[in-house]
Design brief:
The chain is of the alpha+beta class and 149 residues long. The chain has 3 helices and 7 strands, in the order βααββββββα. α1 packs across α2 and α2 crosses α3. The longest helix is centred in the last third of the chain and has 23 residues. The termini are far apart.
Length: 149
């Protein structure tokens, strides 16, 4: 099996610190993502993506590879129940005048894996909700389903 990657870039009217906090602080992430990212964010530490509901299920997990606040975060990313090896997510925050270019590179994805399919729709939804949340204070309904025709 070969590896594949997904890259998504968006521009947010905010600061690198505010975007960083929105990603790594569970109490903020749950507001636009519906999950909390839990870790101490030190290289080598474990991180977990925990559902913000009564189940508190760990939906994803991995390890922190790099953490350069507030510029770069690299983590491994895996489904605890998957037979596929974990992938890698790199988050780059670059200030540009009064905004920030946020680049997500999700690579080391095994071609044909369920994860490769999920993230191609998941990242755009989550990052659009993050952008809306930081710019207007209102997140999007990240996991809303299309209306039946």
């Amino acid at each position: 099996m070969t590896d594949t990657k997904f890259v998504y870039v968006t521009y947010i009217s905010s600061t690198p610190d505010k975007i960083w906090d929105a990603i790594v602080k569970g109490e903020i992430a749950r507001q636009y993502w519906g999950h909390e990212n839990v870790s101490d964010w030190k290289p080598g530490s474990k991180w977990q993506h925990v559902r913000d509901d009564a189940s508190r299920t760990v939906a994803l997990e991995g390890h922190v590879v790099e953490s350069d606040h507030p510029r770069r975060l690299v983590i491994t990313w895996g489904d605890p129940d998957s037979r596929f090896k974990p992938s890698r997510v790199s988050i780059i925050l670059e200030p540009i005048e009064d905004m920030v270019r946020l680049t997500i590179t999700h690579d080391e994805l095994q071609e044909g894996s369920e994860m490769a399919s999920k993230i191609s729709s998941g990242w755009p939804r989550v990052l659009s909700s993050l952008k809306s949340f930081l710019e207007t204070g209102k997140p999007l309904k990240t996991w809303a389903q299309p209306k039946a025709a």
